[in-house]
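Task: complex structure prediction.
Instruction: return structure tokens for all chains below.
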Amino acid sequence: MLCQNCERQEATTHITKVVNGETTATHLCSQCAANLGYGDFLSGFSLNLGGLFDSIGNEKRKSGQIAQTRCPKCGSSFEDIAKSGKIGCAECYNTFYEKLLPTLQRIHGRIRHSGKVSEAACEENKKQSELEKLRCRLNAAVEEQNYEEAAVLRDKIRELEKEA
Amino acid sequence: MEKWYIEKGNQGDVVLSTRIRLARNLREYPFPAKLDSAGRQAVNGLIKDAATADGNPDNFSYIKMDELTKAQAVSLAERHLVSPEFASSAEGRALLLTPDESVSIMLCEEDHIRLQVMKAGLALKEAFEAADAIDSKLDAKLKYAFDDRIGYLTQCPTNLGTAMRASVMLHLPALTRLGHISRLSASVSKLGMTMRGAYGEGSEPKGDIYQLSNQITLGITEAAALENLDSIANQLVGREREAATLMLEKAENADRIWRALGILQTARLLSGDEFMELVSLVRMGAANGLIELELEKINELIVSMQPATINAKQGQNLNPSQRDAIRAQAVREALETKN
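Output:
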């Protein structure tokens, strides 16, 4: 059986949930199970403080340090979000994407959007990821001292940035 | 201009109205809770400009909430044009409203944009199409916060994905009196929907009016969510009709309805609660052919007899007994007998 989430890997984690007498079965590969918070049954169990604090605690234990990731745009930490139940800004979803997935899974039962798409935003998202790729290639080209390619890449980046 | 709620729509005997609400945010600005007054004003200005561009085809008027009296603000909530929460705090908030009040856009409520379209009766598809068209126009002019994986980004993760909340306002007097509501709302919640009081979260169902809406917004398309809701709403309509027919076979139930009409036609003082209780019975009689009375007229009364709406219309804050007298008079006039 394939994983219901990525539909690529073999499902090795099988979860049966009983909510209000209704049984649902979920089959995931080990990677998706970990991403969705099923690897550690203590973490991310609810949107309230307890559950989320626990997942923060786990991370601290793992990394052995207390450094806290903050959203580069609005400065929210994951703790702030857990406490208020409110996301700070659009960029928070990027910054804390992996950590939010278990909560999204719990609320909606699914984690992949289907429905209307913002045309303008999609254009913009495509442009941003294209820019990211070009910047990576530019760095590589500079490191390899391939200045000819670097110049071409730099021009392309400038062009795209101007459009955005 | 005729307000949308004066019309009677599809399944209008049970379904008062349909509402579609879309939540949207601007990518460049923090969500409203993290936005200061200047930020909110900037956001409101951008959205206002986008909505009224190209000659303001939808004829939106722009209302700054802090320029309204408390009664005017609460009256907007009583007419379901804004949320009660939105009416309770005016700071940095504004509203775009069409003349027939069928389209309203709350600015800087929980999200930057809360676009809602109301239609009389059961009209999910029509209401969605209208909301969708306005949304697409705004999308072309504003930079929305949208993620390919999780859809429209919202301040509360419960709205992610389509960020669409569709609701249907149902009048269920017979099912309420037969004690079926709690069982029905339990089964509805298993299907990813919720049924609660007419004014949303935490509100008491007054006048046996309930709001049925979709809960899940991520991973389900708008069309599928609307189809589910439509099917459940139609089933509830069927159940209510059966229950009402059963109830009205008993002489004492019909008698209660006639008595309720009698009180509404003659009372000199009517409190809000008493009015809602009696008008619900009268509406049940009219919806099932017992009383000859236009449902549009009753629907209009239910909206216009709410306390803040009366205050706002009178242009002053009345004390409860003054208000009860005005309410009783307006109801008598509306339900006057010909003989």
